[in-house]
Write a structure and sequence with these properties.
The chain is an alpha/beta fold. Helix content is 31%, strand content 16%.
């Protein structure tokens, strides 16, 4: 016993080299322990994506505001396509919708060029993955990427449009009778987004011991503007006035006005499908009501986001969970005579984007450099220490995160495809460049491989008001932006 004790304690008269050896071994064991501990503590990712949300400072959103204060807010973030399905596919595959077929759909491209989606990338690297609510929406969903998949409305057999309202709204089976707004005294449990949030809380609890990648997709503030009355009551109707910029852009292209999302709802059914489509069929009182409803839906979503953030804090997961908050595209509230998206205008493509990483320490909370939503795939991969995906079109935002003055892009790109029923023009594609001061759009006919319409707008009030493409003074900037589009499309062999 005594000999064993002697040999277990290093002799006090060790040489310097012996002492160095002992110290080196101890340091190595410590380093191995630290590295092992770090490898066991992969950060979680909570990705919250909402529908039709534009950057909106006029809404009451204390929870989203708090997230922005703690994280980083990208003030010039753009969607690649102002329509749900192609935008979401682009985000979760990190691929430009330019690669897709009609309407930006990537299904055929993915069939011929298999890609690892963002959730599958995380799953293959040891993450529990969950899809809750509206995530892909009709486009090819990478079901094998999810350990857990649930979209309550569709499992109940609801029509996709019915799933956006409350139970009362869902009971209206004739689409022509769907109201554009709904403010009723109903419990939160009658609303699909709330039920999705409850399920998300359960999944956070379930995955709390494992690293998770969870996407929570809320349908609001998408039409119809249906939200519990308590969120309508946060606002006074008379505080909402119709936009002063409610005229269609002068000399703009009429294609974006051939269909209005609002025209699918009472009392606006077919209101835009007339010869005088540029005439605003929405009265001032109706505009105020619609804008009020949109704000109520935004505050409702903020409440649900708050539930998720409070759950993370209660489980002490807020210290090891990256949170992303964004929208699939923007939305017009009567500006430029548009009630919807489906264009390349700024309000259709400009989106809120907040990224919170508990490890990031920075005093400057905003980034003004241009970013695109397809940048999120490589960014999140890098933040959690995963290898860069083999093939993505986006760029990691880490350089911009680390240096507020860095520029990922000099401008952002988006595209849109005509909904025209006229077979001669239904396949027109519009490619756009968004800079700080301008929006430039080219309408491309793939059949004749020519540009058939061009638009250039100076954003004096933040809106596209007058198409100045034909002005002599615009030649230089038209050439510059057209070259940017050519360079962008050349990556996809679209010349």
């Amino acid at each position: 016993m005594g000999n064993k004790e002697k040999h277990s304690i290093p002799p006090t008269d060790m040489t310097i080299d012996q002492k160095k050896t002992v110290i080196k071994k101890g340091f190595c064991f410590f380093l191995i322990f630290v590295l092992f501990s770090c490898s066991e503590q992969k950060p979680n990712v909570l990705f919250v994506i909402v529908d039709d949300l534009r950057p909106l400072d006029s809404a009451i959103t204390p929870n989203i505001d708090l997230l922005a204060q703690k994280g980083i807010r990208f003030t010039n973030a753009y969607s690649q396509y102002a329509n749900c399905s192609p935008s979401r596919q682009s985000i979760f595959y990190g691929l430009s919708p330019v690669r897709g077929s009609r309407g930006g759909n990537l299904n055929q491209y993915l069939k011929n060029n298999p890609q690892v989606s963002m959730p599958n990338h995380f799953k293959q690297n040891g993450y529990q993955t969950a899809s809750l609510g509206k995530v892909y929406h009709g486009s090819k969903d990478d079901r094998k990427a999810w350990n857990y998949f649930h979209d309550i409305p569709f499992e109940k057999g609801f029509h996709p449009w019915e799933s956006y309202g409350s139970i009362k709204n869902q009971q209206i089976k004739d689409e022509s009778d769907r109201p554009a707004i709904e403010m009723v005294e109903e419990p939160l449990s009658k609303y699909n987004d709330y039920m999705i949030s409850l399920e998300a809380l359960e999944m956070i609890e379930k995955f709390k011991e494992d690293p998770f990648f969870m996407v929570v997709g809320f349908r609001k503030p998408h039409l119809p503007f249906a939200a519990p009355k308590q969120f309508w009551d946060l606002y006074q109707r008379d505080q909402f006035e119709p936009s002063k910029y409610n005229k269609a852009p002068f000399k703009g292209d009429s294609i974006v006005y051939q269909w209005s999302e609002l025209s699918s709802y009472k009392p606006y059914k077919n209101s835009y499908k007339t010869e005088n489509y540029r005439q605003n069929k929405v009265t001032e009182d109706q505009s105020s009501e619609l804008i009020h409803g949109y704000h109520a839906c935004v505050s409702y979503i903020d409440f649900l986001v708050g539930l998720l953030l409070k759950k993370l804090a209660a489980l002490d997961l807020d210290k090891k969970t990256i949170v992303v908050f964004t929208s699939d595209h923007g939305f017009h509230l009567g500006e430029q005579q548009i009630w919807g998206k489906h264009s390349n205008y700024k309000l259709s493509t400009h989106v809120p984007l907040i990224l919170y990483d508990p490890k990031l320490r920075t005093n400057k909370k905003t980034r003004e450099g241009f970013v695109e939503l397809l940048d999120l795939y490589p960014t999140l991969s890098e933040l959690v220490g995963l290898n860069k995906p083999k093939m993505v079109d986006g760029k990691s935002l880490i350089p911009l995160i680390n240096n507020p003055k860095a520029l990922n892009y000099s401008a952002a790109f988006s595209m849109y495809q005509s909904f025209q029923k006229d077979l001669s023009i239904k396949d027109l594609k519009a490619y756009a460049v968004h800079s700080s001061n301008h929006t430039y759009i080219e309408w491309w006919d793939p059949k004749i491989k020519k540009i058939v319409q061009q638009e250039l707008y100076e954003l004096k009030n933040g809106f596209e008001e007058i198409n100045i493409f034909e002005e002599k003074s615009s030649e230089g900037i038209v050439q510059e932006f057209s070259e940017k589009i050519n360079h962008y499309n050349s990556r996809f062999n679209l010349q």
